[in-house]
Amino acid sequence: MPDVIDDAVKNLAQGPNFAALTTALPGGAFQTNVMWVDCDDEHLLINTEVHRQKYKNVSRDPRVTVAIWDQANPYHYAEVRGRVESTTTGPEARAHIDHLSRKYTGSDYDASAIQSERVILRIAPERQRHQA
After folding, report:
1. Does 77 map to a domain?
2. Total of domains in the chain
3. How many Å apart are CA 37 and CA 40, to the nearest integer?
4. Which of 6, 32, 68, 103 could hold 12 in an S-S bridge, CB 3.0 to 4.6 Å?
5. What CA–CA distance (Å, rounded) separates 73 from 79?
């Protein structure tokens, strides 16, 4: 059973705050992408597309680090180290990107921007910390 998401992490992830997702590239170097983020009680949720390098990275090595910072005060942040425990594609992933887009931009996601299939990465925390 994964750890639950700490309240401080959950508050940052549920607000319109950006996250940095770090994954391991095939050669051992790291890749970091600024992402929209969400959560449920047990996972951080990142939505991407199956053709993206970050998805290929976590398919090969599920270990990730996610840093989320408060848009109003970047010194208020959280870091979660964990693993992509599962992925979801199909209508649920497509609906989730609309949910995220409404949170960050106020409108649904531009369907013409989708190049492949949307996928939700469910990240189970192994270590969580925050700075207020």
Report:
1. yes
2. 1
3. 11
4. 68
5. 15
pLDDT tens-digit series, residues 56-95: 999 999 999 999 999 999 999 999 999 999 999 999 999 9
Comparing CA positions, the residue from 22, 4, 132, 15 lying closest to residue 78 is: 132
> Domain residues for 127?
7-131
Residue 107, pLDDT > 50, answer yes
CB atoms within 10 A of CB 45: 19
Q: Is residue 45 part of a domain?
A: yes
- Is 126:44 a contact under the CB 8 Å cutoff? no
Kindly state whether residue 2 falls inside one of the protein's structural domains: no
CA 93 to chain centre: 13
Cβ contact 45:96 at 8 Å: yes
Separation between Cα atoms, residue 114 and residue 107, nearest integer Å: 15
Residues 6+ apart with CB under 8 A from 106: none
HSE-CB at 79 with a 13 A cutoff on CA atoms is 8
Length of the chain, in residues: 132
Look at residue 1 and tell me if it is in a domain: no
